[in-house]
């Protein structure tokens, strides 16, 4: 029962991440939404797997999965962001100065 709840919460987190990809205004917000919500979703699904199988192997695999996601998701987000913004380009979410 509890594992199904964690799996449902993880799926909801993935759904929220996918909505963030469509609803956010620019690439930086989209990357942020996808990275944060999907990391939470993977963690909740891994907890559900541990609660369902209850073996030492499942705990080890779940820890490895969560570790790798938390290691690679921010790095991939940073690499994509560095590619989107050249060094001398103004960030798109800074307010524009009004010229009068």
Question: Keyphrases for this structure?
Answer:
100 residues; mainly alpha; 3 helices
Short description:
The protein is mainly alpha-helical and 100 residues long. 78% of the residues lie in helices and 0% in strands.
Describe this structure in words.
The chain is built from 3 helices and no strands. Helix content is 78%, strand content 0%. The N and C termini lie far apart (63 Å). It is mostly helical and 100 residues long.
Order of H and E elements: HHH
What's the overall average pLDDT, rounded? Answer: 85
Task: Show unreliable segments.
Answer: none
Alpha-carbon Rg, integer: 18 Å
Helical amount? over 70%
- Report strand %: under 5%
Class based on secondary structure composition and strand pairing? mainly alpha
- With helices defined by DSSP (H or I, 4 residues minimum), what is the helix count? 3
Oligomer: single chain
Morphology call: flat
Distance between the termini: 63 Å
For the biggest sheet, the summary is: none
Q: Please report the total strand number as a whole number.
A: 0
Annotate the secondary structure layout:
Layout: H1 2-23, H2 27-53, H3 56-84
